[in-house]
Amino acid sequence: MKLPASLLDTLHTIFGAHACSTDDAERLAYAYDNSRRHALPDAVVFVQEHAQIEKLVLACREHRVPIIARGRGTNTTGATVPVDGGIVVSFERMNRILRIDPDNRLAVVEPGVLNGDLQRALAPHGFFWPPDPTSSPWCSIGGNLACNSAGPRTVKYGSPRENTLGLRAVAGTGEGFRSGTYTSKGATGYDLTRLLIGSEGTLALITEATLKLTPKPSGLRTLRATYRDVSSAAHAVARIMAQPVTPCALEFIDDVALKLAHDHGGDSVPLAGAMLMIEVDGEPDTLASAVDAVSRAARGDGLEELRVAQSAEETQALWSARKALSPAQRTISPNKINEDVVVPVSRLPELVDGIRQLSKKHDVLIVTFGHAGNGNLHVNLLPRDDAERERAHACLADFFALVISLQGTLSGEHGIGLVKREFMSLALQPSTLSLMHGVKAAFDPDGILNPGKLLP
Amino acid sequence: MKLPASLLDTLHTIFGAHACSTDDAERLAYAYDNSRRHALPDAVVFVQEHAQIEKLVLACREHRVPIIARGRGTNTTGATVPVDGGIVVSFERMNRILRIDPDNRLAVVEPGVLNGDLQRALAPHGFFWPPDPTSSPWCSIGGNLACNSAGPRTVKYGSPRENTLGLRAVAGTGEGFRSGTYTSKGATGYDLTRLLIGSEGTLALITEATLKLTPKPSGLRTLRATYRDVSSAAHAVARIMAQPVTPCALEFIDDVALKLAHDHGGDSVPLAGAMLMIEVDGEPDTLASAVDAVSRAARGDGLEELRVAQSAEETQALWSARKALSPAQRTISPNKINEDVVVPVSRLPELVDGIRQLSKKHDVLIVTFGHAGNGNLHVNLLPRDDAERERAHACLADFFALVISLQGTLSGEHGIGLVKREFMSLALQPSTLSLMHGVKAAFDPDGILNPGKLLP
């Protein structure tokens, strides 16, 4: 599709020549995201002000041209790939931290602020913003909100939905609006804030966010527990989550993943049936007893070794296994399929057993690790060639059916985007989907916001 | 309005004679709620099964007859008063706790379960559900969800929106649906769960809730701090909220309220410029240091006395002032107007000063106390006769304008209902309200669910 000349003129008027491009090179750079899917947009614009978005949406609405909001494209689901062409709106230049307000435990930011930059700016005030995807140095707050991206600390501190007070945004109608409050409590009308969070740019473009801050505990201890088998580790997870001291990370790594990390990361990575990486935070005079409480819960049938890191170096060594995983996987399969399903914690053993059977049935290598405290596992299918790739895709449908049968859902923190859209009807009832379509129509009557994503 | 005979027949078929009434006495009993407003419904039905609600909504939709969902009517905003007649659906008989699942930190309940009954059932498992309105012995979970009702523990543990994983419900279309997950993390489509929470029965009738449980700390300490003036107390609140140990209650009581409580509750109630009641929870070996941290923050300019209760009796004595307030107010004004506005914590001094000026300007007694940690104050206008009642109503508009000017909002936990609906356009932009109307139309195209509430 070619953009109408009048729309191109409008884009130039709104954004200026320096922030608006139809060059092939620029379009190519914004054609793909971390999903490795790609599709060329017709133009790329770099927004800096809320008012520009209002004008843009009105203009695009007139011409029925798609708008795709984009943070830094670190999502793995194709949520920012412009499958129907249109205009990619990059928020990378709208990246000011507008206010840090420790007294009210909040920060007001533009969506292009990088997660890592925000954390650095908050640190001197003694606060942090809990959502911390592993991509935090490169991913934007806007992207975190769009996908409800979380990370290991979610087990204790919640996801963006639990850590955002209010938003400013522009709906697909072209109307700018504010939702939520500057307070930690509110019962004034419908919760549009949470509705936008996780909607992947299909309802509105977020132009400002008021984030709820959490005081940063001054101490952190890292534990590593190895178990005879997956089931023992999963039972330990349930025991840990049933006692009052909630760890700030509770990561699971299965035996296949450990073997892989060991092969690539060396002997510092233990070999075991399964491993838990546990982090406990707190204040200096409470940390020891918190570590004791969590350690007691981690012990039990099947525990092989429990180590508490005594120094920063030891902590680094304990995390080496987890960190060695991503590079190790890439050496096997450049085309890994990375799912992030979630099941109730008590169903983790069944999930891991089921994955093992599917791996055998479809003859595909599957490596499993992730945020066990939330039942959120990263399940990586690692096809090495085209034949395996085809088998991996066949395996996916079985895999999602397994997850749903365990009362789980398709995604814990990556979202749906392009790649999981076809499976939505497995996870959600037709009536639920129909209400979601109704909400979509209320916010975006012409369907111009990120078409082809999230809803089937 | 008289219900069509065919609809009455349908009601009898769905509910049976024992759970469906058009008697005057029964209708009168369900005509009012804790707002003391009232309006007669045309019928009252007592639901016990999800399927009954699906049938009821379809039948009422056909005849365009209003449906008003009702828990126990403890709300203070008229949210369950059937202003346009129609059918009140009482959930009091749909009150089973379906599942308590400590391994997955969740409970599945029917909406008629009383908050207090749920807490009692959870206690042996070592868990609690954080929302605890002061009416917890008599209010239902369904009502808590409908109004996003919170309570003192919100400051540490959040409101129903932060403590609910999923819902089953019936939309105004007549379609039953499920939202959310059985897991503590999810990024599978729009967040309809939070959208329903706080929607006061205007979008759907909730028939089942999956609640997120929190391990119950085994220890609790109560502190009482009195200050020279409101401003000193408000600054102490900001200091307490800026350090890492978050109290599980942080209640503020102004001098007018203290004087009132002292007059009625006796000398155990201190007289001071303002008072904070602070509760800190934790495990036995961490509690002392948590109390120390909060005490350090509570100290500062203007502190007059800081007492830590050493026994259950002393705790009870410390709370006596707070508890004496409600009966004391009733002796002054049987028609008290109880608002629960919320402002950023740092704006509390300005709010309390402003209230004082309005009290003078309109010559109305105003008593202020509430959940200071969230900036959520209960502001009680106490008119003693008709003339004062008229002045109090005039004062309200000024009061809400003050709250909005301080970046606050109309309600922290009571909701909007009937009584604050006219002020919604003060708090929300026309564009925000228009999107809320769009959402309403998607869920309830014929406008039969709780008409006349929440949205202006």
TrEMBL record, chains A, B:
Keywords of this entry: FAD, Flavoprotein, Oxidoreductase
One Pfam entry name: FAD-oxidase_C
InterPro entries linked to this entry: FAD-bd_oxidored_4_C, FAD-bd_PCMH, FAD-bd_PCMH-like_sf, FAD-bd_PCMH_sub1, FAD-bd_PCMH_sub2, FAD-linked_Oxase-like_C, FAD-linked_OxidoTrans_Type4, Oxid_FAD_bind_N
Cofactor(s) listed: FAD
Domain of life: Bacteria
Domain FAD-binding PCMH-type: from-to ranges: 37-216
Name of the protein this chain belongs to: FAD-binding protein
Originating species: Dyella lipolytica
